[in-house]
Design brief:
Layout: H1 3-8, H2 21-30, E1 57-61, H3 63-68, H4 89-92, E2 94-102, E3 105-114, E4 119-127, E5 136-138, E6 144-145, E7 150-161, E8 164-174, E9 183-188, E10 192-195, E11 200-203, E12 208-213, E13 218-228, E14 231-240, E15 245-253, H5 255-260, E16 263-272, E17 277-282, E18 285-287, E19 294-301, E20 310-320, E21 327-331, E22 335-338
Antiparallel strand pairs: 1-2, 2-3, 3-4, 4-8, 5-10, 6-9, 7-8, 9-12, 10-11, 13-14, 14-15, 15-19, 16-17, 16-20, 18-19, 20-21, 20-22
């Protein structure tokens, strides 16, 4: 099913099924709109007031303005947690500094970074409307990349005061023959923002476009394969950038296993020899040219802790009937990487 079909789906017509905790966690990694509630931020003085007509949209670039508004001072700091460390994001990201206002909502793109595989964008929202704690966004094209054949990833939006929200999205675009360009063109056209708990939806006219240069990274080839119960998993490479660590992999699933379980995708448990945990059962983006038999994927996490000399990567395959109908887990042998860094 395409992303547009997911977005346009009539949820009132769906047959609801029980879903296990493991499958909830698995779906969480592949759905674009993932929200998290944040503590209410301290009282903040607004350094600038933006006044526009209700039905018109105003756009402007505002690096200097953003620095004067407290809640726009490094949005990414709101999202540093055990799941992902963004400590180097501000230093090495591009200051996008774009904002547009429509129907009482100002959307501001703060910073973005392209590590050669994945893209991370931080943004903020100021609104006159009451969305409660569960503001979400509707968009046919979620951060579209010119020339990409598709993308997948996650997004979080957190409330920080009565009328302000911050967000971060990370996604992996897919290109023909897995060729990632040196410069990418990014567009984003949110159509509406809504709250299910407060039964509010606000449509508007927002449209953003910006480009990002690829960060230089150190690529370490691995090409190590582990096999178990009809799955052959090959860790192809690991790349180290200033903001992230990216692993690339390929897996082949036997016809016999796919007959029983039509979806077989990995989650990862990754730690170093010092005990630092980087991933704890999380997945990543990928694509399959043959309905799941061959799967090419990437996943990324934060930078490696200083002093670590080995990375231990354990793939666990989630073989599923999908729709909460059942699954099994297939544990593969850990792959130990000696770090060249």
């Amino acid at each position: 099913m395409s992303m547009k079909e997911w977005i346009d789906m009539d949820i009132d017509q769906l047959e609801l099924l029980d879903v296990t905790d493991v499958e909830k966690a698995r779906v969480k990694q592949h759905v674009l709109k993932k929200r998290e509630k944040a503590p209410i931020w301290r009282n903040m003085a607004v350094a600038a007031v933006i006044i526009v007509g209700t039905s018109t949209a105003t756009g402007f670039a505002f690096p200097s303005l953003a620095s004067q508004i407290p809640f726009m001072d490094n949005v990414i700091h709101f999202f540093n947690d055990a799941e992902r460390d963004y400590k180097d994001f501000e230093t090495f990201s591009t200051d996008v500094g774009l904002a547009q206002t429509s129907n009482g909502m100002t959307i501001m793109i703060d910073n973005a970074v392209y590590d050669g595989t994945n893209i991370t964008v931080s943004f903020a929202i100021e609104t006159e409307h009451d969305f409660n704690d569960d503001l979400d966004v509707r968009a046919v094209n979620w951060f579209n990349i010119v020339g990409a054949t598709g993308s997948g990833g996650t997004s979080k939006i957190s409330k920080i005061s009565d009328n302000r929200y911050v967000g971060v999205t990370s996604f992996t675009p897919h290109f023909k023959e897995s060729q990632h360009p040196e410069v990418i063109e990014v567009t984003w056209e949110p159509e509406a923002f809504y709250s299910l708990s407060n039964d509010v939806e606000v449509e508007g006219d927002w449209s953003f476009a910006f480009s990002l240069n690829r960060l230089e990274g150190d690529l370490q080839l691995v090409n190590e394969t582990v096999q178990q119960e009809g799955v052959s998993f090959t860790l192809q490479s690991i790349e180290f950038t200033d903001v992230s660590t990216v692993i690339s992999y390929e897996q082949i699933v036997s016809d016999e296993l796919l007959e029983k379980w039509p979806s077989v995708t990995p989650v990862f448990y990754i730690k170093d020899d010092l005990g630092h945990v980087y991933m704890d059962g999380l997945g990543g983006g990928g694509k399959s040219p043959d309905n799941g038999k061959t799967f090419y994927g990437t996943t990324d996490f934060g930078t490696i802790q200083e002093g670590a000399s080995q990375l231990i990567i354990q793939p666990v395959e989630i073989a599923s009937l999908m729709s909460g109908k059942g699954h099994i887990e297939i544990e593969l042998e850990p792959i130990v990487i000696d770090l060249d860094k």
